Amino acid sequence: MTFLNVEEYRRKARRLLPRFVFDYLDGGSEDEVALKENRRAFEAIKMTPRLLNNVSVRDQSVEWFGQRLPMPIVIAPTGLNGLYRRDGDILLARAASRLGIPFTLSTASNNSIEDVAKASNGDLWFQLYVMNRDFADQLVDRALAADFSHLVLTVDVAMGGKRERDERNNFVMPFRFRPRTIADILCHPRWLWDVGRYGAPSMANLATDMVTDPNTQAALLSRKMDASFDWDDLKRLRDRWPRRLLVKGLLHPDDAKRAIALGVDAVVVSNHGGRQLDIAPAPIDALPRFSIVNAPIIVDSGIRRGSDIVKAISLGASAVMIGRAALFGLAVGGEQGVVEVIELLGREIDRTQALLGTRELVRPTSGAFLPDARGALGAD
């Protein structure tokens, strides 16, 4: 079956996955206002084409710290990917390697840092949650030993967001299946054969002799992070990690400027896909304010079309992170499904470029498109 867009992959994933799994993937916090606004904000942005340009050859590659990415996409860090396909983290990493784009492994992954590194020869980034300082240091050292190129510190999780879909489904760990959940699982035989028959996937990065604190796994499973982590701790992390360091979850440009001043290499403008603070602004709306930040900017949350990616680059992003869209592909088609979703987005980027009349992705400094007071894009 051929899927025409990311939404069709989403609908198929909804049919294939048990409800508690799909709701964990698809849901947001509280009333899901931020989740919905992430999409509305992209849809509100318009771009005016400049025509009669030669666009017979188009290029969507971007520069990232001296290297060239074939498209401005990084696969975002997402936890519990083994719920969608067995060895989901490895499948995502392999798909990213095939596409020539980076893959970001979450602290809350179901495949370990070491296993993912062995299974993929692509550009691997590691996302860090800080539950306690000693364990965070262990994770950083392991990622460095496994030759991960970037460390991505997530900072918008002083505590977990109130995800009411998960609460209604009794989505807790260890899993406690109620009769209706068991009945739902039995109605999804493909998922049961691929994932369910092996039992609940484990937090592989915590299944190691190096983790001796029994409270650490419980903290990660319940998203109870170290709420005391502050700017001094960020500076200590910068001193410990010798490679590229990103901070993810920023929505205020002053926070980004302070992070860069401490030696952070780039930032990710994000509201955690609408899964944390439900009153947070859409990252794409916040993005133009980050023009004062003298560093590469990545944006995520709500991206479903290649045209969304073109809009993000036009508003100042160096690249985007793709989370749910890649996971819909993973649920539907495994590694190949992820490749298909990203390639679909790439084709949409290319078509958008041709119809806008630009051979390359347009950055704000080009003068071709400028944000107006409401964030829309128009010709100057």
From TrEMBL:
<dbReference type="InterPro" id="IPR012133">
    <property type="entry name" value="Alpha-hydoxy_acid_DH_FMN"/>
</dbReference>
<comment type="similarity">
    <text>Belongs to the FMN-dependent alpha-hydroxy acid dehydrogenase family.</text>
</comment>
<protein>
    <submittedName>
        <fullName>(S)-mandelate dehydrogenase</fullName>
        <ecNumber>1.1.99.31</ecNumber>
    </submittedName>
</protein>
<dbReference type="GO" id="GO:0033720">
    <property type="term" value="F:(S)-mandelate dehydrogenase activity"/>
</dbReference>
<keyword id="KW-0560">Oxidoreductase</keyword>
<keyword id="KW-0285">Flavoprotein</keyword>
<dbReference type="InterPro" id="IPR008259">
    <property type="entry name" value="FMN_hydac_DH_AS"/>
</dbReference>
<dbReference type="InterPro" id="IPR013785">
    <property type="entry name" value="Aldolase_TIM"/>
</dbReference>
<dbReference type="InterPro" id="IPR000262">
    <property type="entry name" value="FMN-dep_DH"/>
</dbReference>
<keyword id="KW-0288">FMN</keyword>
<dbReference type="InterPro" id="IPR037396">
    <property type="entry name" value="FMN_HAD"/>
</dbReference>
<dbReference type="Pfam" id="PF01070">
    <property type="entry name" value="FMN_dh"/>
</dbReference>
<feature type="domain" description="FMN hydroxy acid dehydrogenase">
    <location>
        <begin position="1"/>
        <end position="374"/>
    </location>
</feature>
